[in-house]
Amino acid sequence: MHADTDCQRIITHDSLSNDLPPLAVDLDGTLTRSDTLHEGFIGCVRAQPLAVFNLRYALKQGKAAFKREVVQRIGFDASLLPYNEEVVEFLRAQKRAGRRIGLFTAADQSIADAVAEHLQIFDVARGSDGYTNLSGAAKTQAIKEVFGDRFCYAGDGQVDQPIFAEAERVVLVGQTDRLKAGLANRDSIEAEFPVRRAGLGVWLKAFRLQHWVKNTLIFIAPVLSFQIASPAVAAQATLLFVLMGIIASATYLINDMVDLPADRQHPRKRFRPFASGAIPVRDGCLAAAGLLAAAFAIGLLVLPWASVAVLATYLAVTLAYSFFLKKQAIIDVFILAGLFTVRVIAGSTLVPAQASPWLLTFSMLFFLGLAMVKRYAELARVLRTGGTEVASRGYTAKDLPLLLAAGVAAGFGAIMIFTTYLINEHYPLGLYARPSFLWGMMPIILIWTLRVWHLTVHGRMDEDPVVFALKDRFSLGLGVLTLLILLAAW
């Protein structure tokens, strides 16, 4: 969580005396690595996607009224904020030394009170009251009303420069070099806490490029129809693979922003770029919009209309999943399986023959089983740590047997469909010189499916079985064996 933070404290000699001025601390970007208003708005979109348009009436009454309306719609849990632990520890040390500390934020007063109650550091907490937005001159006035003309201010942005000018001492957080450039008196700096902006590595983590491998399903139809040998089809399939990946990365950004509260309660997901505060929600929204615009612009110029339509369908279903359907138990796993099947359909738009119903049915059942694995693993982890349900998913301990039975049944159903697919389509068509070799794929799929469930019920499965398969040597070995069987059959 702190890998992208480089903190350095600069304390002057007289800061150790008892003559330190009271310390006024900003919240968003200073005490925390996030912006409570931006995250609150995303929370409103998540909770009431259609009713969010009613917020425009509150916005007409001013920013303070808008902030109050947002927090009243969704509530607020101060324990879930990604605090800048270096700053928090600095404040605790100042508190132990007897220094008066106050929280002064443009966030709503209810948020200021909740943060103060959670941290137990501040002697006073002031925020926007629904009428006055506590920023700029209003914040300066509030600080002076509480602490007088002599105070120290901890802030992180250019908007804080007028308050820095009024302060006797300053604590800089964030882009400290830029903040120092605007100070008239650099000797007033009491401490610095530089925070680097998210670099390429952090963004690539947010894009989840490792999940692009799921898009290889696009190549199934071109490969099985032998159209992949055509340079034009191969080029289009490759481009479709990339564009599907770009759209998927954009939806991962959106999903992570929507899932902030749940991710911050997860032992591993809390370290994701948005949950940890490494990437601000505002930047994530801009990046997602840019990726989607670029993907569809390229697709409309190069790909068949049918391919672009499938991309649009994939995006629509994914957004519906993020905002609505992921909260519906059982429905959510069908949507996940459907998204895998959509990838197969996308590839079929590049070849003359339509995708086989048998192939699509196999894909749906096979990936439904893997989606059940994912939910089973999530729920089992929660139960092992003393919980009773998966946050925002709708599953409880009573669903474990159902997920196990339905998941295994879906896997076996997929194998039966695969057998029918071979008998009804590939044998009569004569696409393979030795189609009997394809039967060797059946036990491979069965072995892999049962092994995945064996690992899952024993608590050894990663929550995403597709990602697990890419790291598991046994799974990779079965994949190579399957490829050899296909080549031998051909």
Tags for this model:
490 residues; alpha/beta; Rossmann fold; Farnesyl Diphosphate Synthase; 2 domains; 6-stranded parallel β-sheet
Write a concise synopsis of the structure shown.
The chain is of the alpha/beta class.
Description:
- The chain has 490 residues and is α/β, with parallel strands linked by helices.
- The protein folds into two domains: 13-194, Rossmann fold; 200-489, Orthogonal Bundle (Farnesyl Diphosphate Synthase), CATH 1.10.600.
- Helix content is 58%, strand content 7%.
- The protein is built from 21 helices and six strands.
- A six-stranded parallel β-sheet has the order 3-2-1-4-5-6, sandwiched between helices.
- The longest helix is centred in the last third of the chain and has 30 residues, at 400-429.
- The protein is elongated and about 90 Å long.
Strands, helices and their partners?
Blueprint: E1 23-25, H1 27-31, H2 36-47, H3 55-60, H4 63-74, H5 85-96, E2 101-108, H6 109-119, E3 124-128, H7 137-147, E4 152-155, H8 161-166, E5 169-174, H9 176-181, E6 189-194, H10 200-207, H11 220-224, H12 231-258, H13 260-263, H14 281-302, H15 305-323, H16 331-348, H17 357-384, H18 400-429, H19 441-457, H20 465-471, H21 473-489
Parallel strand pairs: 1-2, 1-4, 2-3, 4-5, 5-6
